[in-house]
Amino acid sequence: MKVRITESLDIDLVKELWCCNRCGYELISARMNYKEGCLVRARDPSDIFQPLVKNQPYTFAPDPNWCRIVEFYCPQCGVMFENECLPPGHPITHDIELDLEKLKIKHGIHVERSKGGIT
Amino acid sequence: MSHVDQQELLNWLKPEKPSEYELDCTKKIGAVDYVIYGEKLKLILTEAMNVLINCGVSDTTMSGDVGVVLCTAEGDAVSCNLGSFMHLVSSVLPIKHIIRRLKNDPSVGVREGDFFFCNDPLYGSVHNSDQIIMMPIFHDGNLLAWAAATAHTSETGATEPGGMPVRARSRHDEGMHFSPIRIGERYKFRSDLLNMMENFALRSPRTFIIDLRARVSCCDRVRLRINELGHKKGPDFLIGLFRLILMNAESSARERIRGWNDGIYRAVVFTDSIGLKEGLQRVALTLTKSEDSLSFDFTGTSPEHEGSYHAFPHTAVAHAAIYLLGWPFHDLPHCTGTLAPCEFIFPPGTVLSPREEAASSNSVMIGSAIMSLLPQCFSRLMFDSPQQELVSAPMGNTGSGCVISGLTQWGLPVTDMLAYPLNTEGGGGRVNCDGVDAMGFPWCPAGKAPNVEDEENNYPFICLFQKYARDSCGHGLYRGGLGAQFAIMPLLVDHLTQMSHAMNSRRHTAQGLFGGYPPRVIPGIIIRNTNLLEHWASCDIDITDDIHDLIIRRTLAGEYCFTAHFRPTELLHKGDIFIEFSSGGAGYGDVIERDPEGVIADLCNGQISSWVAEHVYGIVFDPDTLVLDLNKSKSRREAMRAERCLKSLPYRQFLESWLKLKPPDEILKYYGTWPDAQPNRNIFRF
Ligand SMILES: [Zn+2]
Fold this sequence. Notes:
heterodimer; A: mainly beta; 4-stranded antiparallel sheet; 3-stranded antiparallel sheet; 1 helix; 30% strand; B: alpha+beta; 3 domains; 7-stranded antiparallel sheet; 5-stranded antiparallel sheet; 19 helices; 33% helix; 20% strand; globular; binds zinc ion
């Protein structure tokens, strides 16, 4: 059973996996950061923001010393799940860390715990 | 120390415990009366806000950057009118200070006909331009309620005109700071105090005094109407109604929170200026949702610094309230009861919890980071919930404020912040639609941009154009709304000064959502010594009405100056063109999934450029007719997907090279230790 968690990410509650909502690709354990199951690329901001001025520090495009656009893709269909505009070298954010047991209960999946299962 | 410890001030935001008497009073309120008279309170505040906006004269007040709040006798906010939800928080705190520290002080006291003033952030104000009038409301000699009216009036007698000096190094550079003080008795101003206050605002005394009187008139209207209601329904009815609103608000908020997925949600944003200088700073949020409560932990935020882009903890909460009451709890009572399930953690020594002498006149600038963090975390929290339709990327959150100062064409001293750029920022792309173009002022979405004719009448400039700014939005499956472009030139005077305090020229604070991109950055632009007046004199009016074209084609002679967006006070001479942009909103979802026809429509409407349509959205079209080539567009997008996979790396491999990078040391001075932003310098303020 899959639950949609973001625009393009599902969690398979039975398999406990992050999945691509578009192509179904199984990324990684739902107990981990989904970004660890992605393909990742850091882009120069001027790929996305056209500099309107030449030879100036301020061009309408972010300065690559201050900001890179780190994109997280589905390895199978190439959809972009998320991006982060980070200073170069800044750690990646673990943005969603769900309480999987409670999520399963909410969606009617039985949870076995080490001491006494919930039925 | 007369002011209140920052943590204690935060505690004051929690509603007071109900007394037995109050609980008894709640039992007398029937369900129908609860709805009718709850609505009646809102109508009273709406009427009072109209008084404030219509009587005030500052550009920000007339645009609606105000707040009217009704509080219980103990100071808890039970209802408010937009304006800005920030002022719900900032009204409660100085009222509670008066109740706890001044009411029983025989040298002060609280009497019928009194009104108090406060603009000091150490006592609850957002920053010292946000000035508050508070008026106790009595019934048969007993304190029944409080009315509070807040409006942003720029001038405070700081080191630079306009109350938000970017060069401020400490609170001592910021001019007027009034702790809660009685400035009126028996419904009349004390003229001795009024004189002193006016002298703080000599750069714009008319604006200051008229706005001040407008706040008092506003509070008095609330008092009048609550008195009428008290006589009609009795004070016990109102006491019960107030308490019931607070209790219902908290239980409704808790019920809503319970419906969201338990977990931990994190986001980080980065700013590029501290006011004095450029510099990278980080603001981090860990939002923990458990059962029916929310914990907002800002650990990991960069240390305080020598500039003015600081917010005290209650100011940070005031910025959180903009989002909380505007989005996830928009349909719950707008009162402090709704915020009661929220706990806030601000480690001392950060930009969100600096020492008391820190300058905070630009608190709203660092506050913009909070306004960008909350939609990030809450959108992840609410996607799998009944509130999914509220999922949205952040608004522009730039606050492109520029202060002009000088003599008007009528010979009067004036200093004011121009409200057009503020009130035209783009909304964020949403889960099911684009953000609204020129949506409004993110701090106060109910505000409105002023009419250009009014601006030209009130201030000594001509407005060359104010209109949408092409490509200013964040792109995505649903793009952010566009921001605006705005150009003025001094007219009928020889010169003016301008000061700008907004950031986002090296990088944008707002981030996109679920693969959407952030809005583009904003340079500071002035075109000096143009000959536009001569062009006009020779009837050559076809220069351009778009700043992008002007920059690229240089159809107007002059010196094109590009700087950071924030700028200390500088002169504008006749012939100089000052340009300001408001920010577009952030984008939602993957650009490659945007409807190709929607891209073409944006292109045809001039909302995006052909460069963006091709390079960002991967659309192929006829450059002359702008007709879409759907098949080529599909192929182009397939190629883009393939290119993504080809040019990227698996996460672990990516990290190996990525984590070796580091920004240049010169931009990390104010960041703290790299990368975890812990304090690493002594701060000296002088
Ligand atoms: Zn996929």
